[in-house]
Specification:
Shape: globular
Strand order of the largest sheet: 1-2
Strand content: under 5%
Oligomer: single chain
Order of helices and strands: HHHHHHHHHHHHHHHHHHHHEEHHHH
Distance between the termini: 52 Å
Radius of gyration: 26 Å
Structural class: mainly alpha
Number of strands: 2
């Protein structure tokens, strides 16, 4: 029973934070918020008194639990100040909203702390790697949504709850789809929060947490090692610490170099030094994390003829989209070659580099072929190829654009959807089914056509479970896109092809839009949010997180003869 009550008040606290922007609205909203406020206060006081009664000695309980006592006193103090400010009126409205936000956020953290201690459900979550990863992303998205709704984050009207959730999900899932104009709607504080959410989403909050642990020379438990091994897809537990440090330092180094290279480009475009510094850092992080968020209303269309901007951004996108494992492998190969020690790339790196190069080159040629007499026609031939190359790279899950997608031909949109669906490399900041998956499926089809029992890739056998995982990812992705697209065709007033483009872009965490994102209904936004979340975490992670404990069966069942094809 107590577990249910705790769960209820967690949800009530979250609802209160989302409704906070309607506090000054007369009518039902104000009455609901007031009821929630007093309910939460009564819960906190009642919970504290109950704990004190069970302990049997009030002084001893307070002595042993000073945090709970001071938390309650501080919370009640803020609550009383809120009431006094509300009665004083408009002069303190902003400060009152901020204090209410802090009070309710403190309450949620407090309840979550209590909930974790008494709930076996949360304990089961934090002991399963896949569920821990999903839970961490959900928490970051929720907290990010609440922060983005604060008045200080917005230039004008605060974000609606659904728009805040959409924007935070898009940032944490490094997608780039937007329902409001980022440079216009958000203040510099809001843009900074977006940048932080993108960085957290690109690396993962759990990976950053482990980095801080290792940085201060702390040890981790066996359970945490298993979690880290799952996140990095590494079987070598001994090298996890070095892998985490290498990934974090490599990320910050590449982003810093990218910002340095972008700085003169923005400075040359007329930005002040301070603005150029911020824009350089923001776009470098957004590009490397494959997020596609831009601080220009037209994305990067005003830079469609800039060689420097195009090549810096695409290089950052490619670096973030081929995975840290491949980057490390390339670094080791170059180092060995310089020392004349030979060396070679791993099978995984070869597959990623070859398939990625083929997709980028093929995409460039197809976009040029389909658009050079249409959208690209007014530009010089060199710029046409530059724009085609830029968009081919961004289709690998980074939603920058240098051409208006609303004017693209249907053929171009279809080709783009195919490339977006494939996405980048496993273990990278990119989305999609991944080029590794495509490589495994191609190897299986080739072996099947040749009548080989073993599936070989570069004279190495691919395990059967890897093949099954590859087809599962593709099937789950296609099914998810089909279901959400079917719902959006019913709920949205837009062409089916544009809806399909939007859903593929969301699943592949690309962030490119055919121009319908801002006009989506609430149901449409929820559908896109689900696809962005699914695309960032991956079908396998969500399936593993939702599965029960593995059961060993000693029963052998007869085989079923089912006709296929």
């Amino acid at each position: 029973m107590r577990k249910i009550v705790l769960t209820f008040f967690v949800m009530l606290g979250i609802v209160a934070l989302f409704l906070e922007q309607y506090r000054n609205s007369p009518g039902i909203y104000f009455q609901i918020i007031t009821f929630i406020d007093y309910s939460l206060v009564l819960y906190l006081v009642g919970d504290f008194l109950w704990e004190m009664k069970e302990n049997g000695n009030a002084r001893r309980y307070i002595r042993r639990n000073p945090f709970s006592f001071y938390f309650l006193v501080f919370y009640l103090l803020i609550f009383v100040i809120n009431i006094m400010m509300r009665k004083m009126g408009g002069a303190f409205s902003n400060e009152n909203n901020l204090m209410t936000f802090i009070r309710n956020l403190m309450l949620i953290l407090k309840i979550f702390g209590r909930f974790k201690k008494v709930s076996t459900y949360v304990h089961s979550i934090i002991t399963k790697p896949a569920q821990t990863v999903v839970f961490s992303f959900v928490m970051v998205i929720l907290i990010g949504s609440l922060i983005l709704m604060m008045p200080v984050m917005n230039s004008g009207t605060p974000l609606k709850p659904i728009d805040a959730l959409f924007t935070a999900t898009s940032a944490v899932c490094v997608t780039g789809l937007i329902v409001v104009d980022t440079p216009v709607h958000f203040t510099y504080a809001g843009k900074t929060v977006l940048m932080i959410l993108i960085q957290i989403g690109g690396l993962g909050i759990m990976l950053l947490s482990f980095f801080m642990v290792f940085l201060f020379r702390q040890s981790i438990s066996i359970k945490d090692r298993n979690l880290l091994s799952y996140m990095l897809n590494s079987q070598n537990v001994q090298t996890l610490k070095d892998s985490v440090k290498r990934i974090i330092f490599l990320t910050f180094l590449i982003e810093f170099i990218g910002a340095l290279l972008l700085f003169p480009v923005f400075l040359k475009s007329g930005s002040s030094i301070a603005k150029a510094v911020f824009f350089s850092l923001f776009h470098s992080i957004s590009a490397f994390c494959n997020a596609g968020f831009s601080l220009f209303s037209d994305s990067l269309m005003s830079f469609n003829g800039s060689l420097a901007m195009n090549f810096i951004i695409t290089t950052l996108i490619i670096a973030g989209g081929i995975s840290f494992a491949v980057l490390t492998d390339l670094y080791s190969l170059i180092k060995q070659r310089l020392l004349k020690k030979g060396g070679s790339l791993s099978i995984n790196s070869k597959v990623v580099i070859i398939v990625s190069s083929l997709l980028t080159g093929l995409g460039t040629l197809l976009i040029y072929k389909l658009e050079h007499r249409n959208l690209l026609f007014p530009h010089p031939v060199g710029q046409q190829y530059l724009e085609a190359y830029f968009q081919s790279v961004t289709l690998r899950t980074a939603g920058f654009n240098t051409m208006p997608f609303e004017s693209l031909t249907n053929g171009t949109l279809l080709i783009m959807m195919g490339i977006m669906f494939i996405g980048g490399a496993s273990g990278s900041t990119a989305g999609g089914i991944k080029v590794n998956t495509l490589g495994v499926v191609w190897a299986y089809i080739r072996s099947f056509r040749r009548g080989n029992d073993d599936v070989l890739l570069y004279r190495h056998q691919i395990q059967k479970d890897r093949i099954l995982q590859a087809f599962t990812v593709i099937a789950f992705g296609l099914l998810s896109i089909f279901l959400i697209s079917s719902i959006l065709v019913i709920t949205e007033d837009a062409a089916p092809l544009k809806i399909l483009f939007e859903t593929v872009s969301a699943f592949a965490t690309v962030g490119l839009s055919a121009g319908i994102t801002g006009s989506l209904s609430v149901i449409g936004k929820i559908g896109i949010i689900f696809l962005m979340f699914l695309g960032r975490l991956g079908p396998l992670t969500l399936l593993t997180a939702s599965s029960g404990s593995e059961k060993q069966s000693k029963i052998s069942y007869p085989e079923a003869a089912i006709m296929i094809g």
